[in-house]
Amino acid sequence: MARQTPPTILALGVGNTLMTDEAAGPQAVRRLKAEAGDHPGLRCLDAGTLSFTLAEDIGAADALIVFDAARLKAAPGAVQCLEGQTMDDFIRSGKLTVHEVGLTDLLDMARMTGDLPARRALIAIEPAEIGWGLSLSPAVEQAMPEAIRLARTVIDRWTTETLERQP
Predict the structure, then answer these.
(1) What percent of the chain has pLDDT above 90?
(2) pLDDT at 101
(3) How do the domains of the chain map onto residue ranges?
(4) Does the pLDDT of residue 99 top 60, yes or no?
């Protein structure tokens, strides 16, 4: 009898923790780890402002969730979950903050090497302010539970789908 194994899911928190709402990604991934870090197959990583060294981590994952502050053209603190091609299109549109080139490059590297996780999601949070500071704005702080809820919903769905497909 085959043993069912959950997918390897990498959750990245992208952003600069010294710049107010730019820290939404790292804050969210820390909170996800605190709430769901014992979920089988889940690995949470503060990716900072990105680096090409993350290419190996992305390539080794079955699925990828990225938390990031992003210009959604919405009210501060708005949260959206973008998956698959919708995520890719959004990232390529240049709507992310200062590090979007790095994320685009990382995903393109994974795509070129055949290591791009088939399942990808961006949990995007509209910033209220980007400037020097160690605290999130009230609007983004209030958005954190919704960002974590969306990520957990995606993780649970991906895990269920994978386990249902296994013999």
Answers:
(1) 63
(2) 47
(3) 9-161
(4) no
